[in-house]
Amino acid sequence: MMKKLIITLLIASSSLLAGTINVAVAANVSYAIDELKAEFKKSNPDTKVQVTLGSSGKLTAQITNGAPYGVFMSANMKFPEALYEQKIAMAKPIVYAQGELAYLSSKPMDFSKGMSLVKDKSIKKIAVANPTTAPYGKAAIEAMKNGEVYDKVKSKFVYAESVSQVVTYAVTAADIGFVAKSSLYGSTMAEFKEGVNWTSVDTKLYKPIKQGIVILKYGSKNAEYKAFYDFILSERAKNIFKKYGYLI
């Protein structure tokens, strides 16, 4: 009797999960993901998208250790390429968007100074995402090195776990931060004005941030994962990415 009850409960719980897909998403996409999910739902009303956000490096570590994600939207190409080489991703990653770096501060800044701005004595703390696990953090370090300010300002760094956490640090615990430009287009950021509180970092100072998507082994036999993957590469999704400051 107990065995039958356990089997019944297992069937019931699995039916509750039917139509749910688990997607690992780089932190910089957190600002656009709700709109992407809503647009996907229009053509896939029976599929629930469960999103786990984090730095691409940490998500890759979780995937390598068997986390049940069927699609991975990375902030670069390196991490999904590594998963493909390990035969955890089913095909080579495809670029779904190209991100940009921006400076962000809660205080008005003289952005005409360019990268030399971060050397100012008034700037005592600079928020940066962990460059080991966050591609936007790596790009920020690269930009500062190419802008010839890195050695002068590295003692000011306050490291965040992900680029989305940098946004919080930049307007609270630090004087300025290197954020994903996509974070500045959400309604919660309306009080911060372009040219006053934020501006783009010169794209010549860092390599293009090409963001790659892959279907993982866990989701390879589920048509709903393929539908979501195809949607992210569609014109409908591209229009949303453009709205959030991504290059397509």
Model description:
- With 248 residues, the protein is α/β, with parallel strands linked by helices.
- It folds into 2 domains: 2-98 and 208-243, Periplasmic binding protein-like II (D-Maltodextrin-Binding Protein, domain 2, 3-Layer(aba) Sandwich); 100-205, Periplasmic binding protein-like II (D-Maltodextrin-Binding Protein, domain 2).
- Helix content is 35%, strand content 20%.
- It is built from 9 helices and 10 strands.
- The strands form 2 sheets. Strands 2-1-3-10-4 form a 5-stranded mixed β-sheet, with helices on both faces.
- The termini are far apart.
Please tag this protein with its features.
35% helix; 10 strands; D-Maltodextrin-Binding Protein, domain 2; alpha/beta; 2 domains; 248 residues; 5-stranded mixed sheet; 20% strand; single chain
Report a brief summary of the structure:
The chain is α/β, with parallel strands linked by helices and 248 residues long.
Structural class assignment? alpha/beta
Work out the helicity level.
Answer: 25-40%
- Average per-residue pLDDT, rounded, comes to 93
The span between the termini is 58 Å
User: Total number of helical segments?
Assistant: 9
- The CATH homologous superfamily of the largest domain is called Periplasmic binding protein-like II
Radius of gyration using CA atoms only: 20 Å
